[in-house]
Amino acid sequence: MTRTKWVAAAALGALLMAGQAVAADKKVVAVSIPAADHGWTAGVVYHAQAAAKEINAAFPDVEVIVKTSPSATAQVSALEDLSAGRKLDALVILPHTSEELTMPVKAVKDGGAFITVVDRGLNDPAIQDLYVAGDNIAVGKNTAKFLVDKLGGKGNLVVLRGIPTVIDDERIKGFQDGIAGTDLKILDIQYANWNSDEAFKLMQDYLAKYPQIDAVWANDDDMLLGVLEAIKESGRTDIKFALGGNGMKEIVKKVIDGDAVTPVETPYPPSMIKTAIYMTVANLVGQAPVRGNVKLDAPLITQANAAEFYFPDSPF
Questions:
Q1: What is the pLDDT of residues 258-270, one digit of tens each?
Q2: May I ask which residue range the UniProt record assigns to the signal sequence (predicted)?
Q3: Which is nearest to 274 in space by CA: 88, 61, 167, 118?
């Protein structure tokens, strides 16, 4: 059992043991997440809805409400709608962007809600009571270490960023720290917004601009799909590695199959939202307070251990 599944199972077990030992007034937990605009967020929506269904069935005095939003602006409006006319006892939020959601979440906090932030941290960490995320620095650093080793510490790289968030900054920092002191050179680094189509276009630009690219790092697997398609269409053979991150099942399958260009991966499970919801509800039903930072590991996925991270029936 992976660490994420174990934590989620333990949290759910604690909730079930609490039985009906809750207050007479129904506790309201709002869950605000991005809409399923790419594979990883599809997984987030899937696991959030599963958690809400399980908790609402087990605890009649707890109501978990899941609201998805297609943009940061829409998410701000969703927070206003969720808190209008009712008291929120807790908010679990995966922000679209850190900057735009920080103050709206603070307003909910000021209303007395317990705040759990997942994945994309706020610009002011003091607002959150609980933070659940993967180890984004390790996602970048472990990928970088692999490239340093396989390329002998020298070569030309291009990098695709996600969207301006704390986690994107952390992944880039980890990667840059990982290649520091080597002769690996980042020729270009631009945002592709964790979007396959945008990554395809950006990779086409990179291919047209740079005649020699030894490796590509797209810091998210949805972008990696676009990168791989652009490389395939170009017919270029100079690119030795194209790597991503997040543990998408299609990419893990490549690792299992021994793909030469994408032989490794790093996990960043969308099921972390489910863990966060369970842990948040535990604070409302008489369990010991759960506060602070929960960071999930990001070990390098290789052909030797890839089966442990492969879930073909999951949405991601």
A1: 999 999 999 998 9
A2: 1-23
A3: 118
Q: Are residues 143 and 130 in the same domain?
A: no
Burial class (CB in 10 A: 0-12, 13-18, 19+), 186: middle
Q: Per-residue b/e over 50-80, b at no fewer than 16 CB within 10 Å? A: ebbebbeebbeebbbebbbbeebeebbebbe
Handedness of CA 35, 222, 177, 7 (dihedral sign): positive
**Tens digits of per-residue pLDDT, 97-110?**
889 999 999 999 99
* Same-domain pairing of 145 and 115: no
Q: Are residues 127 and 273 in the same domain?
A: yes
| pLDDT tens column, 18-57 | 444 434 479 999 999 999 987 889 999 999 999 999 999 9
Q: Report the C-alpha gap between 205 and 52 in whole angstroms.
A: 43
**In which order are the strands placed within the sheet that holds 154-161?**
183-191, 154-161, 215-218, 241-243
| Average pLDDT of span 127-144 | 95
Structure tokens at 302: 């290789």
Residue 143 lies in a domain: yes
Prediction pTM value: 0.74
- Residue range(s) defining the domain that contains residue 198: 136-256
Q: Please, where are the H alpha helices in the chain?
A: 3-18, 39-58, 72-83, 98-110, 136-150, 166-179, 196-209, 221-234, 249-256, 272-282
